[in-house]
């Protein structure tokens, strides 16, 4: 069945970096545009970054542009999110999913930015 497993979150100080991973299974990964989303407590889930099927095109929310980089490895069925210059407002649970034809959400990975 379709499965998305996020990992790589943790506690980091402001200005720090983290690399998130999302391992996908149960569908033809290379056939889908993929995205990272995040949800902070009490807030709606928001789109953070998008990457095209072959990785040649990316897009970012204004709030993370210049600080986050989305990438993918189709051979490993994995999408990544490299996060740098982290701010306290980046604190949230991060999820990946298909950009269209969204499937069941994974458990997410918690990112906490705090001194």
| Helical stretch tally | 0
Strand order of the largest sheet: 2-10-9-4-5-6
Structural class: mainly beta
- The dominant shape is globular
Helix content: under 10%
* Span between termini: 40 Å
Folded structure, characterized:
The protein has 115 residues and is an all-beta fold. It has no helices and 10 strands. The radius of gyration is 13 Å and the shape is globular. The model has no long low-confidence stretch (mean pLDDT 97).
How is this fold's topology laid out?
Layout: E1 3-7, E2 10-12, E3 18-25, E4 34-39, E5 46-51, E6 58-60, E7 68-73, E8 78-83, E9 92-98, E10 109-113
Supply database-style keywords.
single chain; 115 residues; 4-stranded antiparallel sheet
Short description:
By secondary structure, the protein is mainly beta.
């Amino acid at each position: 069945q379709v499965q998305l497993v996020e990992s790589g979150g943790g506690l980091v100080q402001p200005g720090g970096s983290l690399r998130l991973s999302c391992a996908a299974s149960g569908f033809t990964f290379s056939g889908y545009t993929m995205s990272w989303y995040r949800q902070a407590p009490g807030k709606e889930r928001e789109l953070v970054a998008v990457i095209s099927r072959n990785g040649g095109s990316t897009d970012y929310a204004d709030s993370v542009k210049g600080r986050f980089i989305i990438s993918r490895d189709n051979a490993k069925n994995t999408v990544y999110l490299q996060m740098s210059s982290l701010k306290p407002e980046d604190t949230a649970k991060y999820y990946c999913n298909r950009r269209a034809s969204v499937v069941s959400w994974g458990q997410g990975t918690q990112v906490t930015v705090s001194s």
